[in-house]
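Table S2 (continued). Query chain:
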Amino acid sequence: MVLLGESAVGKSSLVLRFVKGQFHEYQESTIGAAFLTQTVCLEEATVKFEIWDTAGQERYHSLAPMYYRGSQAAIVVYDITNQESFQKAKNWVKELQRQASPNIVIALAGNKADMANKRVVEYEEANAYAEENALLFMETSAKTSMNVNDVFMAIAKKLPVGPTQGQDSQGTVDMNQPQQQSKGSCCK
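Corresponding output:
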């Protein structure tokens, strides 16, 4: 999975909240990219997220394809108090639709929902855009943890399950087919 978006929209804060349950008011800018992992358990599978948190500064833009080309999922993050970050998020979505894996799961996250009194990007506008482009969409707040786990869980549920019993020739799993539960699973 890769996180994309402008600098200072809260990508690192979202990942840190998801992986470690932490929030730092003054998070330093990411240089290049940071890598974190987190495992979540769904009823039908265990999903290990391998997360590339990319730098948002323009000078690192050319590195982004290195991270999203092999990704099964992406979260494109914008700041609800910054219209330009929403426009740049749309550019990231277009780039992913053109160049990333055709089956990539893309979520759009309107971060900093705790600052709704300073909102410039309306929920309805972003939601309509997400629907037009078949994106998952949630407003999040890394500060209060609002919808942070939810956006990752929604992605986990949309990902194809890895090579296991019950897979068809395209490598997808029929979720209506009962799966065998392995012993020692964290999902008990």
